[in-house]
Amino acid sequence: MNHQTIQQDMIKILLVEDEALIAISQKAILESLNFQVNIVNSGEKAIEYIKNIEIPNIILMDIDLGLGMDGVQTSEEILNIQEIPIIFVTSRTEPEFLERTENISAYGYLAKLNNANIFNASIKVALRLFATKKAMELKEIELIKSQERYKALVEWSPNPICIHSEGKILFANLALQRLLKAQSFYELENKNISEFIHPDYKDIIQSRIQSIDIEYKEVKPKFEKFICLDGSIVDVVVRGIKVFFDGKPSVLAYIQEAS
Asked: Are 32 and 22 in contact (CB under 8 A)?
């Protein structure tokens, strides 16, 4: 048995269909493709199945389920419980009927009387789309966690650190706030870094920032003079490197007071 067949054997489908003959026919088609299939004949039973029996890999949902909840209402309830890919299966084609599904995160539509190849392809595409979506969500969560750890590290660094993008200060740790005589980060946030650079060094700093933007490499430490919020001047040594911060290309400046 090849890898694809093993994977298909493991895929569990919940078929929500109120017409018994159609449900039996669709179940036979799906099982001929080696899917595991369970049938429920109402929206209420589908919700009960999700809550108390198991979470399927995918749901094939009839939109018109007769009396009781319809497929759209059922899908909304299920998605409030668990995110599951849903394919709507219907014999109805009226625009006003299909419009009711627009706010549901559906993964496609199938006509009730379809052949095995169309069922197979549609299910596989839906599962791939769902897997891609979940992978992207996981990467986004990991990125947020990574940024939070990164912020924590630089926040408590004993050396002043600044992150800026397009000339605007995005982040200044406590050490930099103390160096520039700021009472809080809000006194520095979104201010142009040129406001804190001595006029004699502005051209040099601008050239260094452009070098980082173009070459994506760390620039060597350079002597500079900063102007603090109280007007005092402090001698510093600054090195910079390209980073991504809050999803945008930025420059991280690592600062040391010159002795």
From this structure: no
